[in-house]
Amino acid sequence: MTRRKASYRSLVSLQRDNRVCRACVEAGYPLESLPVFEGRPRQKAMIFGQAPGVVEGEERRPWRGRAGRTLRRWLELEEDAFYEIFYCASVTRCYPGRGAAGRGDRTPTPREIALCRFWREWELSLLRPRLLVPVGGLAARELLGVRSVSDFVGRTYELDGAVAIPLPHPSGASSWLNDAANRAQLEGALALVRAELRVLAAAG
Ligand code: SF4
């Protein structure tokens, strides 16, 4: 049964309730995993994805599949360093299952996104990250209200005191990265993320 308190004073307590959330299932959505996220208090950087995939749902750990390996290669981070640096959460946190056409995963509905927003809003207010990296169009739209990948990749935003630098999704499902100009745009965005990570590392 989903537990949501009126207010949370610690991230650990929020995570305890988020881990057993079944709000979307209770609302009738066919989710295929329990919630997936990972992070600790005082992490200063956050990766915000769309939703876990099948591998992440099985392992209950974010960014375990091919898209995660691509993301780490983009960021030039080994696996241990990636999880050490980044708090990992997403717009919705349970594997949504395959899409109706059988190609790719189902995109979470607006209702599921609204139900999951509760966890993200409390998470951001308790964690207060300095760097936010939304990954993919859905995450950039949810966090920053921006729509077009071409418009947001390579730009820096401000959100509640954090620097936000959106990236395209590394799943390979989109053809956006097939264009050389778009890959150059991605390199610009990755350079911005790496520079912010150096600033955070220097600040301790
Ligand atoms: S997607 Fe989010 S709101 Fe829905 S059941 Fe999973 S954790 Fe709860």
Quick rundown:
This protein has nine helices and five strands. The protein has 204 residues and is an alpha/beta fold.
Share of helix, binned: 40-55%
The CATH topology assignment is: Uracil-DNA Glycosylase, subunit E
CATH architectural arrangement: 3-Layer(aba) Sandwich
Largest β sheet strand count, sense and barrel closure: 5 strands, mixed
The count of helical stretches stands at 9
By CATH's scheme, which homologous superfamily applies? Uracil-DNA glycosylase-like domain
CATH class: Alpha Beta
Tell me the number of strands: 5
| Net shape | globular
Q: Report the sheet-strand fraction.
A: 5-15%
Number of domain modules? 1
Give the ligands present. iron/sulfur cluster
Structural class: alpha/beta
The string of secondary-structure elements, in order, is HHEHHHEHEHHEEH
Mean of residue pLDDT values: 95
Question: What does this molecule look like?
Answer:
- Helix 1 packs antiparallel against helix 6 (110-127).
- The mean pLDDT is 95.
- This protein has one domain: Uracil-DNA Glycosylase, subunit E (3-Layer(aba) Sandwich).
- The longest helix has 24 residues, at 180-203.
- The protein is built from nine helices and five strands; from the N terminus they run ααβαααβαβααββα.
- It is globular.
- It has 204 residues and is of the alpha/beta class.
- The structure holds iron/sulfur cluster.
- The site of iron/sulfur cluster has 13 residues, from helix 2 and helix 6.
